[in-house]
Please model this.
Amino acid sequence: MNSTLLSFPDTARLWVYQADRRLTKEETEFVNENAAKFCLSWSAHGQALQATFQLEYDQFLVLMVDERQAEASGCSIDASVSFIRALENKLGLTLLDRGNVAYLQDNEVKMIGFSQVKPSIQQGKITADTKIFNNSVSTYGDWKNQWLQPAGQSWMKRFF
Model:
């Protein structure tokens, strides 16, 4: 884990971007290098943001801001989305599409479209114990505690 994350409060604001595929080693290095540069230069109304990132499972880019010093504003959030779009264009992948659900199966990230959730549960591909990724978390505390959760304790519970 990025040691900078450990110094952030649980209230730090957070965004999770899910790639539509696993990144290669070279792509991971590229993302790590460019995300580090972005976080160092990220600002809101001329004030530097205390920001960091984490790349998880070579597929999820997590951006985080400790807003105790300066809050992320609309313009700074737009800048982060522009950064994400630039990554998408450079690497030929999708990070902004929220139409897929990711879950862990045999320690590997699998993805299905939202329309395939109910059939996957009915077919036993996803069980109540299957760990799913809750990319709607918005704070560091929620990310630590609720990002990876059993499907039966998530929004999917209505299908069991």
User: Anything to note?
Assistant: The chain has two domains: 3-91, 100-159. The first strand starts at residue 13 and ends at 18. The chain is about 30% helix and 25% strand. Residues 3-91 form one domain.
